[in-house]
Design a protein that fits this description.
This protein is an alpha/beta fold. The chain has a single domain, classed as P-loop containing nucleotide triphosphate hydrolases (Rossmann fold). It is 31% helix and 20% strand. The strands form three sheets. Strands 7-8-9-3-10-11-13-12 form an eight-stranded mixed sheet, with helices on both faces. The longest helix has 18 residues. Bound molecules: iron/sulfur cluster and magnesium ion (MG).
Length: 313
């Protein structure tokens, strides 16, 4: 994706002026085949919006999305159909994603009918195989969503996403609503499925430990901007951007030698309607200098695969 921008128009104000929620600003990132790209940031930073634009579930205000070398930004619905199958999304709340009156076997089978994959007999076999793949049992086929726990429901949603043989899945906070013990089971399952089905993931989360567990590379977002991106181990051992450092300092570190001083940011995240000038992080940045108020720092590659947007670095 390159130079993605998303502005949501707001109701006109008292004086008829038009205002926009600047959800995503000039964001460019590449997700490589077979990897898990973790996108982190506080809620409202634009990470879900980014995921939806990449899938073309939301139209970008400007910018472009390429998929396997093809420019898909201006694909029509008709043209999108062929790639929609390859791209799936799963959400935080698996319950709302499932029709409560539909048996889960049918729910998992449905996308196969929609995309005309196989016949009824093949469907049943495929669903049973998918149930097994996600750690459920054949006898679950005829049960309803309410008979399952949150973790099991996320397994069902995954089975349904896999029914159409996707290549790329956007996982939008898929474990945030689950207990910690269940979280790691689902993360391990996602890793297993990635291997079995050769999947590529965009993994969106606000929880850094979850992102660390599953991602190969991580991008950090703040107020609609990508501020830092690096391979996971590099980002966690040598974070460079002041915002990333503050985020990481809040994560409990079991190893006392690696423990960092806690950096507490002052103030709240500013409104995305009136973005701060210059570096959007400047009102809260402990290291801000005069330039930061005026000039927008560009995301630059400092070391191999390590990009940072900060005037000081
Ligand atoms: Fe802080 Fe300035 Fe760097 Fe922004 S550009 S993160 S305000 S030092
Ligand atoms: Mg979100």
């Amino acid at each position: 994706a390159s130079n993605l921008v998303k502005h949501f128009p707001m109701k006109r104000g008292y004086f008829g002026e038009k205002s926009y929620v600047k959800a995503v600003s000039d964001l460019s990132l590449t997700i490589y085949q077979g990897e898990t790209y973790g996108l982190v940031g506080e809620s409202g930073c634009g990470k879900s919006t980014t995921g939806r634009m990449i899938l073309r579930l939301l139209e970008p205000t400007s910018g472009s999305v390429r998929y396997r070398g093809k420019e898909v930004t201006h694909f029509s619905e008709e043209e999108l159909r062929s790639i929609r199958k390859e791209m799936q999304i799963i959400f935080q709340d698996p319950y709302s994603a499932l029709n409560p009156r539909k048996k889960i076997g049918k729910a998992i089978q449905e996308p196969m009918s929609i995309y005309n994959i196989g016949d009824a007999k093949q469907h049943k076999e495929a669903v049973l195989e998918l149930l097994r793949k996600v750690g459920l049992q054949p006898e679950h086929y005829d049960r309803y969503p309410h008979e399952f726990s949150g973790g099991q429901r996320q397994r069902i949603v995954l089975a349904r996403a896999l029914a159409v043989h996707p290549a790329f899945i956007v996982c939008d906070e898929p474990v945030s609503a689950l207990d910690v013990s269940i979280q790691s089971q689902i993360l391990n399952l996602l890793e297993q499925l990635q291997e079995d089905f050769e999947l590529t993931y965009l993994f969106i989360a606000h929880d850094l430990s979850v992102v660390r567990h599953i991602s190969d590379r991580v991008g950090v977002m703040y107020l609609g901007h990508l501020v830092e991106e690096a391979p996971t181990d590099v980002l966690f051992s040598e974070p460079l951007h002041p915002y990333t450092r503050a985020l990481l300092s809040a994560v409990p570190e079991p190893n006392p030698k690696k423990r960092r001083e806690r950096i507490v940011l002052s103030g709240d995240v500013p409104s995305p309607i009136n973005l701060p000038s210059g570096c959007v992080f400047h009102p809260r940045c402990p290291q801000a200098i005069e330039t930061c108020k005026k000039e927008v720092p560009i995301l630059r590659e400092l070391a191999k695969h390590h990009r940072v947007a900060c005037h000081l670095i």
